[in-house]
């Protein structure tokens, strides 16, 4: 039986190229490496927080105390009460729980789920999964910058709506959405408002008037496998899962206490550095936004130029296949992602870029982590210029 | 104006993105300014990428018409 990947470092394969270690991780929006503040906590939590927090003996009480502490930290950052915060197996699981639970708690006459056209696929897919139970999804479009118009979104909400889903900020292009602006309308009609804050927590100001909020720890430097579902007191929501007492009855199964503790430690550290990071990141992404059109011909910088996440910038290059770009940039030492799917099995382009009317091929999303420097960004710009030129030549692009 | 007969039809069926757009960019200069080129493509990305190409390159996206076999044909008017 091979233990590759689960064996210790000494047994690890040595076939990775040396310069791999120098790869710049420019894909923080997919997931960040563990925050240094979380590393120690994660290790010690396996000693201190391994027990089942629902039990009554000492080690279990200790795990429960640590878990409660983590919950307080997360609640403080989200701007809610600790008992409104539940931990899930990840961001997607949190979104599924939020959407399915809002529908499970609906009044009989309500059946519509209002979503922006640029929500994360986990939102769109969970709304679609409720179709057989009578849910109807109503999509609200965006403009060319990826912004939802608050009035248009509010007009889509009416007494037959169950739930409105509006992301805090878009995961592919970074555009920040007017969540608080639509909240009043939701409240007036008794409609729950879910904001998927996965890209915003620890990065930027959060909206305050949501009834449900979801997030994902590995996007703020916590470990993968920890998500957050916050349910405001009084929100119309009940667990869509088989009955279980864990997490206030909201999320079944024993909690990943070590992961949650590390996630909270990372978030506390991130919250302290967030303002400084946001300023620095916004300057660097602005530098990319400003320089790319001069360095590359036929390029579309997408997303809102001002109402946007500080750390994320996206552009699309005419005549190129996004996957080829990602592969070549990886070879050159930069990890980025792409919303293009020219070679994927479905061939369906990014629903976000499509909804914006943006070029869907040749797409590159750059999202910065805490350690990035201006020199690295300038090196990246030089490399991307070279790679795009080379790939266009190979494609015999016009 | 979408009734204007296309001066050139590009058969891009079976091509994956970005090939239909590359083909369009290569061949647009084969028609006179003001004429229409039709791109028949089954790649779902073409529905977004042909209009986006027109916006970026300063040509007019006229709209999509179903071709004889039901496949969409995207129509572009050369403006310069």
Automatic annotation (TrEMBL), chain A:
Domain Aminotransferase class V: 60-380
SUPFAM superfamilies linked to this entry: PLP-dependent transferases
Reactions listed under catalytic activity: (sulfur carrier)-H + L-cysteine = (sulfur carrier)-SH + L-alanine
GO MF term list: cysteine desulfurase activity; iron-sulfur cluster binding; metal ion binding
Pfam families, sorted: Aminotran_5
Record keywords, A-Z: Iron, Iron-sulfur, Metal-binding, Pyridoxal phosphate, Transferase
Membrane-spanning residues: none
Required cofactor names: pyridoxal 5'-phosphate
Gene3D superfamilies named among the record's database cross-references: Aspartate Aminotransferase, domain 1, Type I PLP-dependent aspartate aminotransferase-like (Major domain)
Region (Disordered): 1-21
Family as reported in the entry's similarity comment: Belongs to the class-V pyridoxal-phosphate-dependent aminotransferase family. NifS/IscS subfamily.
Protein name: Cysteine desulfurase
Source taxonomy: Bacteria, Bacillati, Actinomycetota, Actinomycetes, Jiangellales
From TrEMBL, chain B:
Pfam family membership, one: TusA
SUPFAM superfamilies per record: SirA-like (SSF64307)
Residues covered by the UPF0033 domain: 10-34
Superkingdom of this protein's organism: Bacteria
PANTHER family reported in the protein's UniProt record: SULFUR CARRIER PROTEIN YEDF-RELATED
Family, as annotated: Belongs to the sulfur carrier protein TusA family.
Name of the protein in its database record: tRNA 2-thiouridine synthesizing protein A
Protein's organism: Haloactinopolyspora alba
């Amino acid at each position: 039986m091979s233990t590759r990947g689960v064996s210790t470092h000494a047994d690890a394969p040595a076939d990775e190229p040396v310069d791999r270690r120098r790869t710049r991780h420019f894909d923080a929006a997919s997931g960040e490496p563990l925050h240094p503040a979380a590393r120690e906590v994660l290790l010690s939590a396996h000693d201190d927080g391994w027990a089942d927090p629902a039990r009554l003996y000492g080690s279990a009480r200790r795990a429960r105390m640590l878990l409660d502490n983590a919950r307080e930290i997360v609640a403080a950052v989200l701007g809610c009460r600790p008992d409104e915060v539940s931990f899930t197996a990840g961001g997607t699981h949190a979104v599924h729980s939020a959407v399915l639970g809002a529908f499970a708690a609906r009044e009989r006459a309500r059946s519509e789920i209002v979503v922006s056209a640029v929500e994360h696929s986990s939102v769109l897919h969970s709304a679609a999964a409720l179709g057989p139970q009578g849910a109807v999804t109503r999509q609200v479009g965006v403009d060319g910058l990826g912004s939802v118009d608050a009035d248009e979104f509010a007009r889509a909400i009416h007494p037959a709506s169950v739930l409105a889903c509006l992301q805090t900020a878009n995961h592919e292009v970074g555009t920040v959405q007017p969540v608080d602006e639509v909240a009043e309308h939701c409240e007036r009609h008794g409609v729950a408002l879910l904001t998927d804050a996965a890209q915003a927590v620890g990065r930027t100001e959060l909206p305050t008037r949501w009834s449900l909020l979801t997030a994902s720890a590995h996007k703020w430097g916590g470990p993968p496998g920890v998500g957050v579902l916050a349910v405001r007191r009084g929100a119309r929501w009940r667990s869509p899962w088989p009955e279980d007492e864990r997490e206030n009855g909201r999320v079944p199964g024993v909690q990943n206490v070590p992961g949650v503790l590390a996630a909270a430690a990372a978030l506390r550290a991130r919250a302290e550095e967030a303002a400084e990071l946001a300023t620095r990141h916004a300057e660097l992404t602005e530098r990319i936004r400003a320089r790319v059109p001069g360095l590359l011909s036929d390029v579309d910088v997408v997303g809102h130029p001002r109402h946007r996440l500080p750390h994320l910038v996206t552009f699309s290059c005419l005549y190129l296949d996004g996957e080829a770009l990602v592969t070549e940039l990886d070879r050159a030492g930069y990890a980025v992602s792409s919303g293009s799917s020219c070679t994927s099995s479905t061939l369906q382009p990014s629903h976000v870029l499509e909804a914006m009317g943006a070029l869907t091929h040749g797409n590159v999303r750059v999202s910065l982590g805490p350690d990035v420097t201006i020199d690295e960004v300038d090196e990246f710009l030089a490399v991307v210029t070279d790679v795009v030129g080379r790939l266009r030549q190979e494609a015999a692009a016009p | 104006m979408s009734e204007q007969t296309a001066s050139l039809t590009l058969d891009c069926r079976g091509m994956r993105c970005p090939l239909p757009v590359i083909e369009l960019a290569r061949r647009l200069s084969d028609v006179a300014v003001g004429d229409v080129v039709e791109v028949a493509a089954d790649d779902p990305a073409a529905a977004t990428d042909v209009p986006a190409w027109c916006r970026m390159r300063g040509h007019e996206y006229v709209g999509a018409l179903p071709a004889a076999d039901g496949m969409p044909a995207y129509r572009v008017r050369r403006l310069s």
